[in-house]
Design brief:
It is globular and about 60 Å long. The protein is of the alpha/beta class. The protein has two domains: about 160 residues, Rossmann fold; about 130 residues, Rossmann fold (3-Layer(aba) Sandwich), CATH 3.40.50.2020. Helix 2 crosses helix 10. It has ten helices and 14 strands.
Length: about 375
């Protein structure tokens, strides 16, 4: 696993005041690896807690040490059973609240349901619901990483620190791709062009954007602006009122804006889950002359047959962070590599507990950075 700690963090990492308790809210042992790394960097022991499922699938949490008057940090990484993961977190937060903890800080590297942050026809904004549930349970602060949309922070009425994984991914590119100077940063759709631009400007590289791909669920055609259906009703609309109809979109042929011929193509995004769009982008880039293709993403959900499809594809390497456990996927596909981000999470915990400024962790990050 790739990780190099800057000397400024290494010298400060183990300095924490008393009164800090670190819990892992996961009943799944494979999800506790990140918690153990964070505890090791902070130089503290993991708090004693039991999290398990009853025979009827109810979640039970038993805290086995005093948290009265202490800063409690609850680390929760998302497993395949995302709804159980959420209930584990909510129940543990509420248990700490009723046990008179001074503050309860959730450390949730990947915020679940983050893609459901916009109104979809007659659906709901689930990430807003989840934010309300966490605040109601007793959460007083949230540490997360690379939210799918930065505006999700506004769903909370508590402080939210949205950390960035890009410094670690940029460092990986510079140190693990020998000829990265011959690379071009690729956005697989116009929607991810801002993130690609951020990477390209920091690495002093060119940018390419793929346009005309098959439309996905993030498109305008499935949001609330097309609901209810546009059916002309004589009874409902005054005869003299003519409402102009929106011209339907027509997808153009797939084109690549930018030169990738004879170059290394590095596709960047925040989440890689269903890999179909990444595979299509890789095929397009190969046809345009790219001789190596890398995919960089913060959150590697890699659901279903993603490992097998990546292994059989034109993609040379997929680099993700350990915000989500994916050891099984790595066994299925050697192309998947992991970057460790436990260092920045542990430093955030240390600074919040000691009452220090968090601005150090957001250096050189502009308001427009994705």
């Amino acid at each position: 696993m790739f990780c190099v700690a800057p000397p400024e963090l290494e010298t400060k990492m183990n300095i924490t005041k008393g009164g800090l308790v670190l819990f892992s809210a996961n009943s799944n042992s494979s999800c506790m690896e990140l918690s153990k790394k964070i505890a090791e960097r902070l130089g503290v022991e993991m708090g004693k807690v039991q999290v398990y499922q009853e025979p009827n699938r109810e979640t039970r949490v038993q805290i086995q040490e005093s948290v009265r008057g202490k800063d409690v940090f609850i680390i929760q990484t998302v497993s395949k059973d995302v709804n159980t993961t959420i209930m584990e977190l909510l129940i543990m937060v509420y248990a700490c609240k009723t046990s008179c903890a001074k503050s309860i800080i959730g450390v949730i590297p990947y915020f679940p349901y983050s893609k459901q942050c916009k109104m979809r026809k007659r659906g709901s904004i689930v990430s807003k619901l989840l934010a309300s549930m966490m605040c109601k349970a007793g959460l007083t602060h949230l540490i997360t990483m690379d939210l799918h949309q930065k505006e999700i922070q506004g769903f909370f009425n508590i402080p939210v620190d949205n950390l960035r994984a890009s410094p670690f991914l940029l460092q990986y590119i510079q140190e693990e791709i020998p000829d990265y100077r011959n690379a071009v940063i690729v956005a697989k759709s116009p929607a991810s062009a801002k993130r690609a631009q951020s990477f390209a400007e920091r690495l002093r590289l060119g940018i390419a954007v793929i346009h005309g791909e098959a439309q996905d669920a993030e498109s305008d055609l499935v949001d609330g602006r097309h609901s209810p259906p546009m059916v002309r009703s004589v009874a409902a609309i005054h005869p003299s009122l003519e409402i102009p109809m929106l011209i339907p979109k027509e997808k153009p042929p797939i084109t690549v804006v930018g030169d990738v011929g004879g170059r290394i193509a590095i596709i960047v995004d925040d989440i890689i889950d269903d890999v179909d769009s990444f595979l299509a982008a890789a095929e397009t880039l190969k046809e345009r002359g790219a001789y190596k293709i890398f995919v960089m993403a913060t959150h590697g959900l890699l659901s279903s047959d993603a490992p097998r499809l990546i292994e059989e594809s034109a993609i040379d390497e997929v680099v993700v962070t350990n915000t989500i456990p994916h050891e099984i996927q790595k066994l299925q596909c050697p192309k998947i590599k992991t970057v460790d981000i436990s260092m920045i999470l542990s430093e955030a915990i240390r600074r919040i507990h000691n009452g220090e400024s968090m601005s150090y962790l957001f250096r050189n990050i502009g308001l427009d950075d994705a």
